[in-house]
Specification:
The protein has 161 residues and is an all-alpha fold. It has 5 helices and no strands. It folds into 2 domains: 77 residues, no CATH class; 64 residues. The longest helix is centred in the last third of the chain and has 34 residues. The radius of gyration is 21 Å and the shape is globular.
């Protein structure tokens, strides 16, 4: 279990890091070229690591539902939406909303057993956990609104030239 926790923490850090890198690339190119670059480099890295670690066995795709192939196309939506949300909301707020959305969707998918997942019993404590995170994001955002109001009120007090 500890390895799973460490891997999850690492994945969270890598997603945050990748999102920031993606937004920096997007400042110099467009969203579609950023997505192409990110997913293209990811393809090359995955292919090389797969060949190195699994050999040609990685190409034996047995017992796979046809609709699983949609995953790559979903990745395009992920990158485009992340880049655009960071551009409009900033990294912390954008990633907070993304993670909350992931958690909320995971709760629904697990509870209903959708997409081939083993159905997990829904509990109000799980829902409460998601709502606590949403409340944290609201507190974070309200703090930023208050800071912006204070900054604008200080600007009004400055003497004009």
């Amino acid at each position: 279990m500890i390895i799973g926790i460490i891997l999850a923490i690492t994945a969270g850090a890598l997603v945050s890091l990748q999102t920031i890198f993606n937004s920096k690339v997007n400042e110099h190119t467009g969203s579609w070229s950023t997505t192409t670059l990110v997913l293209g480099m990811g393809f090359i890295a995955s292919l090389l690591m797969g060949l190195l670690l699994e050999g040609t066995g990685m190409f034996q795709l047995r017992h796979m539902e046809a609709w699983y192939w949609v995953s790559g196309a979903i990745g395009v939506g992920v990158v485009i939406c992340l880049v655009q949300s960071i551009k409009r909301l900033g990294p912390t707020y954008g990633i907070s909303i993304v993670l909350t959305s992931q958690l909320g969707c995971a709760l629904v998918f697990d509870s209903l057993g959708w997409l081939g997942l083993t159905k997990v019993d829904f509990s109000f404590t799980k829902l409460l956990g998601v709502l606590v995170i949403v409340a944290g994001i609201l507190v974070f955002k309200l703090t930023k609104f208050e800071q912006a109001d204070e900054d604008s009120s200080h600007e009004k007090e400055l003497p004009q030239k």
